Prior knowledge:
By secondary structure, the protein is α+β, with helices and mostly antiparallel strands. It is 17% helix and 32% strand.
Amino acid sequence: MKKIIFYEDFEFFYLRKPAWIASSFWKEKSFLDMIFLEKTCCVSDEFVENQNKNFSKEDEFWLMNRLDNETAWLLYFAKTREIADEFMVLQKTGELEKLYLADVHGDFPDGLKMVAWPIAHHKDGKEKMVVLKNSADIGTVRWKAQEALTCIEKLYYDSEKNQSTLRVVISKWVRHQIRTHLASLGFVIVWDGLYGKNKSKDGQKMAMHLWSFGLRRKIFSNRW
Length: 224
């Protein structure tokens, strides 16, 4: 049985999702399947009992965020329905922020970079998203574009690898938001096979270098 790294605070339980698995229930086996249905993951008994008591599968046991299959680290589960309802309101009004770390190819510019290009589904690619930098890009998408704001700051540059480590904060959560905004700036996330390349020297897929590590109310957004 796989042991899952776990901790908690007054509002949430936090579980570390591994890469290459869906966060929630879908056509394929998900992280929630492994915890609540198959029980092939070892987590706190308190967590399982609390989520089963207060929520249901239809609620997704009040999982408060989703990560791309390729993305690892923190998923947040509300402890009570009141907390879940409060944070759903904050999420809808854009008053909630998610924090990430990302490694990208290249030397990202110093200073805080804010990207606000809308994002939409690519007209030909089922999985791929694209950004709309101007009106000429409208022909590349299907369905309506969604507004998205991504705040990026370089923390470190490794000249030997030619890779930058970035802190990324988002509030409105659009599919592949961080991946598409960074790729459109010319800085693809390391091992992002959809927007770059994902083949190691021996041909094996590698985990994408994008990690979820925090959730906060937007009131603290000036504290980088």
